[in-house]
Amino acid sequence: MPRSANVLTPLWKSIAATLRSAIADGQYPEGSRLPTEADLAARFGVNRHTVRHALATLIEDGLVHSRRGSGTFVLSKPLDYPLSERVRFHRNLRDAGRLPGREILAIEVRTATEAEARRLSMTPGDEICVAHTLSFADHTPIALAESHFPEARHPGFADALRSSRSVTDALATVGVADYLRTETRLSATIANATQASHLRLPEGAPLLLTESRSESDGVPVEWGQTWFASDRVTLTFDFQRDQLP
Amino acid sequence: MPRSANVLTPLWKSIAATLRSAIADGQYPEGSRLPTEADLAARFGVNRHTVRHALATLIEDGLVHSRRGSGTFVLSKPLDYPLSERVRFHRNLRDAGRLPGREILAIEVRTATEAEARRLSMTPGDEICVAHTLSFADHTPIALAESHFPEARHPGFADALRSSRSVTDALATVGVADYLRTETRLSATIANATQASHLRLPEGAPLLLTESRSESDGVPVEWGQTWFASDRVTLTFDFQRDQLP
């Protein structure tokens, strides 16, 4: 962008602002096609070069993308999902204006392997409960999770989860009223066939993987892995907010 | 693992522990091949089934991987890199027992686009300094970064960076003695050809992308994106450590 653009009347800028508001207002919803350059030029009474300049700023901001020969499309805005020591899936989604949903795909009770036992401060062979869940925002899958719970330490947890379908409620049933996330590890991975199918993504799509442990009074109550569809969710962490007393 | 494994003498367990120590001690360094199953069976005086059981626990823990027909290899352990409000690359790596290295690939001064200006609280067209850097752990590339600095607000920053090659020193030269990261956004992406070449990874490898802004007295001093080679770095965040007073 040349410096002179700030001196002349920035027509492209007001067009970009108008399109930005129209997208924000839902006039052009996610996935929809914007009017053609020719239509926009006619509507705003400018030449196509000016329209292209305005569209370029929307592309740079990740609001739209242009597909050669088919036009300019409104991108889905990834959901901002705050990382915090409390697991607040439903609240996070409602705060973002999305409809939260969670489906429990499977609940199994089996003996812990050495690595699983270590993560839950148990003995290998102790019973653990493993839950596989799929989370949704506005009916679109956003995350696949595998959570491990120390069944031997909290007998009845799996049954409580099977009937309540809520981890928080099931933990409360076995006497764990409150728990906090202690450590979270973040990495990136590639969707395998199963993950791709659950998350409705192409195989090989990038996934953000979090591994975290939750504790109650210093004792592990959950260890889990969550795979987020990276084009639909951005994890955020605000250092200052969380460090204020 | 059947429950009875805990009742009988767990030979496989002591073999796994021995191999684990040998790997930790550097007796089998990263990338090296472990002795064959037959060699290990002879050395420990057990059958190959027991050796296979021991190796399976090392595979489960991500310490080694098995390549059909070629043997079992020691995996590079990803570097644990703590996310914090202070950018402490050299210290983080030294704490992890790795040799830190950073190479500045390019430094350019140009006018800010609308999006760049917004992120740095500037006016589009204002001068910014953009630095491209590559970070190393023990001479292996681990992260590629693109950092934006408000040159117009801190004239001379780019020249200071060109001569000192250190962001902290260059900021100090223009009067920014201290700065903190305010917000970090995390997502996953796939390495393009340029990123793959710099990071010595195959194209399409998963990368962990962080976007963060640093401020000094409430004014942005840097906005940057960092692409981490996900198989070499795990970002960690300990809620409890950072929340204690």
List the helices and strands and how they pair.
Two copies of one chain form a homodimer.
Chain A: H1 11-24, H2 37-44, H3 48-60, E1 64-67, E2 71-74, E3 79-82, H4 89-95, E4 100-111, H5 114-119, E5 127-137, E6 140-149, H6 157-164, H7 167-173, E7 180-190, H8 193-199, E8 206-216, E9 219-229, E10 233-238, H9 239-243
Parallel strand pairs in A: 3-10
Antiparallel strand pairs in A: 1-2, 4-5, 5-6, 6-9, 7-8, 8-9
InterPro entries (chains A, B): Bact_HTH_transcr_reg (IPR050679), Chorismate_lyase_/UTRA_dom_sf (IPR028978), CP_lyase_PhnF (IPR012702), Tscrpt_reg_HTH_GntR (IPR000524), UTRA (IPR011663), WH-like_DNA-bd_sf (IPR036388), WH_DNA-bd_sf (IPR036390)
Keywords (chains A, B): DNA-binding, Transcription, Transcription regulation
Protein name (chains A, B): GntR family transcriptional regulator
